[in-house]
Design goal:
- By secondary structure, the chain is an alpha/beta fold.
- The chain has helices spanning about 40-55, 60-80, 80-90, 95-115, 150-165, 180-190, 205-215, 230-240, 265-275, 290-305, 325-340, 380, 400-405, 420-430, 465-470; strands spanning about 1-5, 5-10, 10-15, 20-25, 30-35, 125, 130-140, 140-145, 170-175, 200, 220-225, 245-250, 255, 285-290, 345-350, 370, 390-395, 410, 415, 435-440, 455, 455-460, 470-480.
- Strand 16 (about 370), helix 12 and strand 17 (about 390-395) form a beta-alpha-beta unit.
- It is globular, with a radius of gyration of 23 Å.
- The protein starts with a strand and ends with a strand.
- The chain binds NADPH dihydro-nicotinamide-adenine-dinucleotide phosphate.
- NADPH dihydro-nicotinamide-adenine-dinucleotide phosphate (NDP) binds near residues 149, 233 and 412.
Amino acid sequence: MQTIGNYINGEIVAPAGGAFLDNVEPATGQVYSQVPDSDERDVSAAIEAAQAAFATWSTTPAEKRCAALLRIADLLEANLEAFARAESVDTGKPITRARVLEIPRAVKNFRFFASAILHERSDLHVMDRDAINYTLRRPRGVCGLISPWNLPLYLLTWKVAPALAVGATAVAKPSELTPMTAHLLAQICMQAGLPPGVLNIVHGNGPRAGAALVADPRVSTISFTGGTRTGGDIARVAAPLLKKLSLELGGKNPTIVFADADPDAIDGSVQAAFSNQGQICLCGSRLFVEEAIYRAFVERFVEKTRQLRLGDPLDEATQQGALVSAAHRDKVESYVQLARAERGRILCGGHRPTDLSDRCGGGYFFEPTVIVDLPASCRVNQEEIFGPVVSIIPFVDERDVITAANGVPYGLSASIWTSNLSRAHRVADQLAAGTVWVNCWLVRDLRVPFGGTKQSGVGREGGDEALRFFTEPKNVCIRTPSN
Ligand code: NDP
């Protein structure tokens, strides 16, 4: 059984208290590795290392920081297969998804911010003839980066890359459920020659290791992705300490299909509902379909859902893997029971599969599930389930569907399917969401602002937004007397 360590000051070290947590493979339900159960001492040592490294890293020329991040990207790419396998085993996601999408995206995160830092623009404001202002952007010291289990390396590197690119140093706390690719990343950073302390990775429980990171006054900046409730807990601790906060939280995203949509809308909305077993914050779990096409659409949607191949995540043909944990599978299942109690009709799925291979017999699988006949206001249509469960709701009127789509506490993303361009613009403008896709879903350009409104979060990641988040602007005003 593999035992992993924390990455502190350039070395892999055991946790100070010597305690470890079991790490379970979701596809089998078996413990397969041991993860540090870190406490305040480990977090404190990591912060100390990051503080010490800041003096040098923050003044290292951008070209050198860029080169270090590119070396990490190259090594990640060279080890793509090992990373993909580790991610699949750790999370239960299909290996093809990890190989084709998520690990390549982690490579891109490093390359994108490595090059972005070379193309930074400075602001200059000239005041008639009296003075000029220029704005310096300086890295914000030690940053705490807390990431979830659903896209472990993809989301961790989405924070690490911009923080390091601007010259900040970091202490990262990945989800204890999925620590393995963060551990591999630590090894790559050592191989790439990243100076000790620039990036530190502390494993362990959120309420202990994560909370210690948030509460430590030496950490000026917290970038968090995870659940809305945890985001609130973090804000309660960080706000009185006046830390800069970015919170990327939950979603309950609408997919809206108008009667004039291209037939691609079916595949697109199946993908939006069930990618990564529905465990993506951007998944479209409420599917609104215009009444004129409702019956035929639902029939095709169910047919396509039934065709999704569920099975061993390490099997190349698998499209639906396991959910991340027994507790999460139980939560998803409880929502399906709630849907029945709320008088929803389950058109397909709704159960744990019974025909899995021997290896996966104890795994945390759940069938992709399609529910109809529930009102938009019921709990199943209001609360984040974060699993392979979609509720289909008919609508007749554009205005009504906008009201229903916006009628949840969340506002992360939405996707609209229509061939009417004017309607696409009109509806996109009125949806309360940080991202609106038209005739597509999850098309990601790393330059655009990414984040949510309402309970889906505060702040934006991506492109300039991320570079600005990890830096502090300082305006310098110089008087320029005309004579
Ligand atoms: P959690 O909020 O449970 O955990 C996220 C991270 O925070 C984990 O590393 C966790 O550690 C840590 N954590 C937990 N409690 C604390 C605390 N008190 N202080 C500091 N850190 C803490 O989310 P999940 O991991 O369950 O992820 C799923 C959620 O993430 C969903 O709601 C999903 O919508 C959201 N999400 C949002 C995205 C976005 O961009 N808006 C993207 C992806 C997911 P540990 O796991 O070890 O407890």
